Amino acid sequence: MQATINHLRLLIEVQLNLLGVRTRDDRGAVSTEMAVAIGVMVAIAAAAGIIFLAKAQSNANNIPDTVEPPG
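RE: above sequence
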């Protein structure tokens, strides 16, 4: 399992390096773990947005076209 995690970290680091993102520096502020954590948060936010939009559209479709007068 640890070998798989190390392999995935290496693949992500290589992809980030190809995009021009530095994954290692002297201060350690930018790291592969930080990039992965941000990616996970973005994915969660996107999923939540899709759920909210689907719910809003579902509620909008349930609004009746005509309303009966009261009484």
